[in-house]
């Protein structure tokens, strides 16, 4: 079976597939594409977010991270979706936890967004309706909190990039370990299984990792 994976950054996302490919059947063929494919860092710099933009952070193929406004890549993402359908993909999964407008669409096949899974499942996972949301950039904390307030009673967003220094992630874990929240949402596809383990061990809290949640749901649709 052939399925697609679209990143808002540059493909292939080998950092993501390292954690999830074992979840799928060996016969799976994964086709990847990205919203920033083929662009230089200078070109991407022109996509810098303004005051009212929805802010995205993603990874380039050289391992570095970039911050940019969603609006600049929407046409490029739609082109990637169209190509994947034309290439015979049975479904497409989005390698990003951000919220995307309804202008992105497929013609005939399912498109699975991690944010849609998280929005529905996270409220079921917290008894206190009180969560910590980890997000890559300080520019995203307000939009992150505004989103999660629709689904839980209390949320605190803390920034520590999965593409940055490990020390910053450990510092964030120390910062939140005494919080009353009973659930941590690593709200970016860039957070890894190793990072999930660290946050769980240092805080004693439950931790949700979007990349493996996405893969396990998609595996149910492809396990035939």
List the helices and strands and how they pair.
Elements: E1 2-7, H1 14-20, E2 29-34, H2 41-45, E3 55-59, E4 65-69, H3 74-86, E5 92-95, E6 111-112, H4 114-125, E7 130-135, H5 141-148, E8 154-159, H6 166-176, E9 183-186, H7 193-203, E10 206-208, H8 210-222
Parallel strand pairs: 1-2, 1-5, 5-6, 7-8, 7-9, 9-10
Antiparallel strand pairs: 3-4
Helix pairs in contact: 4-8, 6-7
InterPro entries: Uncharacterised_AroM
Organism: Blautia obeum
Protein name: AroM family protein
Task: Tell me about this structure.
With 224 residues, this protein is an alpha/beta fold. The chain has 2 domains: 2-113 and 212-221, Rossmann fold, CATH 3.40.50; 117-208, 3-Layer(aba) Sandwich (Rossmann fold). Helices cover 36% and strands 21% of the residues. It is built from 8 helices and 10 strands. The chain has helices at 14-20, 41-45, 74-86, 114-125, 141-148, 166-176, 193-203, 210-222; strands at 2-7, 29-34, 55-59, 65-69, 92-95, 111-112, 130-135, 154-159, 183-186, 206-208. Strands 2-1-5-6 form a 4-stranded parallel sheet, sandwiched between helices. It has a 4-stranded parallel sheet with strand order 8-7-9-10, with helices on both faces. α5 (141-148) links the parallel β7 and β8. The N and C termini lie close together (9 Å). InterPro entries: Uncharacterised_AroM (IPR010843). This is AroM family protein. It holds the Pfam family AroM.
């Amino acid at each position: 079976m052939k399925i697609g994976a679209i990143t808002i950054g540059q493909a292939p996302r080998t950092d993501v597939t390292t954690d999830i490919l074992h979840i799928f059947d060996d016969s799976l063929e994964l086709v990847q594409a990205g919203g920033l494919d083929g662009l230089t860092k200078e070109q991407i710099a022109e996509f810098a977010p303004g005051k009212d933009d929805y802010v995205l952070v993603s990874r380039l193929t050289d391992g570095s991270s970039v911050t940019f406004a969603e609006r600049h890549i929407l046409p490029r993402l739609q082109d990637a979706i169209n190509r994947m359908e034309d290439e015979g993909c049975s479904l497409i999964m989005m390698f990003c936890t951000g919220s995307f407008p309804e202008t992105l669409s497929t013609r005939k096949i399912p498109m699975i967004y991690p944010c849609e899974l998280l929005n529905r499942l996270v409220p079921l996972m917290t008894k206190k309706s009180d969560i910590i949301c980890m997000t890559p950039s300080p520019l995203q904390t307000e939009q992150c909190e505004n989103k999660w307030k629709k689904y839980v009673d209390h949320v605190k967003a803390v920034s520590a990039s999965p593409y940055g220094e490990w020390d910053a992630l450990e510092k964030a874990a120390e910062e939140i370990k005494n919080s009353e929240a009973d659930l941590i949402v690593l709200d970016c596809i860039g957070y890894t299984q190793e990072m999930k383990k660290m946050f769980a061990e240092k805080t004693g809290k439950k931790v949700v990792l979007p990349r493996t949640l996405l893969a396990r749901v998609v595996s149910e649709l492809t396990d035939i």
